[in-house]
Give the backbone structure.
Amino acid sequence: MTGWQLLAGIAVVAALEGLLYAAFPEAMRRTLTGIASAPPQRLRIAGLGVAVLGVAVATFLVRG
């Protein structure tokens, strides 16, 4: 994976997140309120799971 591919991936994530805020502002506000009230351990586990899944998917896509 090159640096350009990594930047392109980050750009796609930013674009998708922006579209979610534009299309569903109230749902995003509710989601963020729920995240803010979640216990730190739960956020760590969820964050680690999403990170592992993201790396696995990116590796699969780059290596084919």
Remarks:
- The first helix runs from residue 3 to 23.
- The mean pLDDT is 93.
- The radius of gyration is 15 Å.
